Amino acid sequence: MPELPDVERAVREIRLVGLGKEIARVDTHEDAIVYTGVTHQDFADEVSGRIIVQVGRYGKVFYLLLSGEGRMPVLHFGMTGMIQVKGGPATYYKSSKNLVRDEWPPRFMKFILHFSDGVQLAFMDARRLGRIRLCLDPLHESPISKLGFDPLLCMPSLDKFAELMKRRSCPVKALLLDQKFSAGVGNWVADEILYHARVHPERRCNTLTETELDSLHRQTETVCRVAVDADADEEKFPEDWLFKHRWDKGKKNARRSGTLKLPSGAPATIKWTTVGGRTSAYIDELQKPYALSSALEEPLQDEADAGMDAANGDSVLTELSDEPEHARPFSSKRKKIAAASRPRKKRAGDAGDG
Fold first, then answer.
1. How far apart are CA 296 and CA 308, in angstroms?
2. Low-confidence ranges of the chain (pLDDT < 50)
């Protein structure tokens, strides 16, 4: 799914080709799912003839402020949404590359804005999980009004951030993914934040130390800033980022030979688990499921009870996971107890068969 840096890149593209220009005509494709609270024809009628005076973003949502009376387009990419200027590349998310074709109008087009100077801008969505809305006041209406803080636009103070974290008992990765907490943070951004903060994705929020909270606060803003400054171009991301190494997943305990390094220079071990229903990558040597401090050398009891099995790398079924990988309905211990409680079938030759 396109995350904060990807959406910011799209916003910059729209500003570059459309800011200050009149939308002379709008071509639309009917889609009662993607168009929310408005028909495709009403969208075209209300947007046509107006000038783009501002392009903004909040979290993963972006919007166009237009001249004159009427509502403003408020857009969300969903899983596979993207924009494309005719004659240029699409601003696709990494996993959506295979959906891009060299054709116009593009496949999965929902609308095309025709500007007065001849430039054309398309919005596409293959899986139809994106949303197209019209709002009178985008920043004060749903969906933006229901979102949490944006790490680049309104990052809370450390004290407020720590307060919001410590009042929750869910896994920290699940909270970072909650758009009502941190708008714009998605799966890979959350993993990157946790990696640089040296916090395991399944740590419970209310068990985090002051040092960890401080690091999480700094990295939440820093990771988003660095990714945006790189224009969401993975080739420009730092070489020591987890993003550069997480995609060749292979097996759960696979080690990317000689790629990502530990501070010692030894190869890092990338492991995966499922948190909040999403696959989470982490570095086994650096991100532990318990606090690393001189005062706390053993795993917290509630973390140990959560089912972390360091010996075989099995994923953990957290309270917010919906489809954990390799999920097991019963632990090995429970299976043994259940087997022991079942009556054993008698076989020929057993005592008492006479």
1. 18
2. 96, 251-258, 293-341, 349-354
Sequence-separated (6 or more) residues with CB below 8 Å from residue 160:
none
Domains plus CATH for the chain? 4-146 (3.20.190.10), 158-305 (1.10.8.50)
Q: Is 46 labeled as catalytic in the residue annotation? A: no
Distance (Å, whole) CA 158 – CA 215: 10
- What whole-number distance in Å separates Cα of residue 77 and Cα of residue 5? 13
User: Which listed residue (13, 60, 110, 271) is catalytic?
Assistant: 60
Contact present, 8 and 229 (Cβ < 8 Å): no
Is 345 one of the catalytic residues? Answer: no
What pTM was estimated for this model as a whole?
A: 0.79
Active site residue 252: no
Q: Which of 170, 158, 159, 180 is nearest to 59 (CA)?
A: 180
Task: For residue 95, give Cα distances in angstroms to 118, 222, 276, 284.
Answer: 31, 24, 20, 25
